[in-house]
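ok so for the tutorial part 2 we go from a plain amino acid sequence to predicted C-alpha cells. step 1 is just haveing the sequence, like this:
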Amino acid sequence: MKDDNSLANGGEPPSNHRFQSLKEFHSAGRGFWRDVPDADWNNWRWQLKHRITTPEQLQSLMPTLTPEEFAGAKLANHKLALAITPYFFNLIDLMDEHCPIRQQVIPRIEETYTASWEMSDPCGEDSHSPVPGLVHRYPDRVLFLVTTVAPRIAVTAPARGWSAMPAAMIFILNSTSKSPISRSTRKSATSC
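step 2 — the prediction. this is what the C-alpha cells look like for a chain of 192 residues:
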C-alpha cells in the first residue's frame, strides 16, 4: 500500500484518478420524484412549483421528523417559514436529525422562543424602512426587497423577523460618477 506522503518521501505523487473522482458530480438522486422527466427536474420553475410547504407534505416524505420539528412545521407559513424544493430535500439525510441541511430548512419549535438578550430588529433596519420593501440605512445606498419567493427559505430568516424576503436588489449610487450600480444579493443572517 502506497503512503499518501510518498511525494514527501521522494516517491511518486498520488494518482490523478483519485483527485479527479473528487471533482465529479454525484447526484443525490431524485428520491420520491424518481419518475419526473429530466426536463421538469432540471427546470427551476418546476422545482419552485413543487416545493414542500406544508407540515403534511413534510411528514409524508419524512416520517423521521422529531416532535420539535413537527411542532415547528405546524407553524409553517404563519410564524415560521417552510419551503424546500425537491432537489434540496433529496440532500437531507433523513435518518440524521443533526444533518446540517436538515437543520437549515426544517423549522423547530425552539425557534419561536425569544431569549431575554435577543433583539427584535438586530440589524436596525425597521427604523430605516420608510415603506415596505425598501431600506435606506446609508445616504448612498438603498436596499430594494424585490421578491418574497425563494426556492428554499433558511430557518434563520423568520427567526430574525424576516417573513419570506430572501432576495434583494441593491442599488449603490457611486458618489463620483452618480451612476447606479446594481448588485443582486441574498439577505442572510450575516448581512447586518
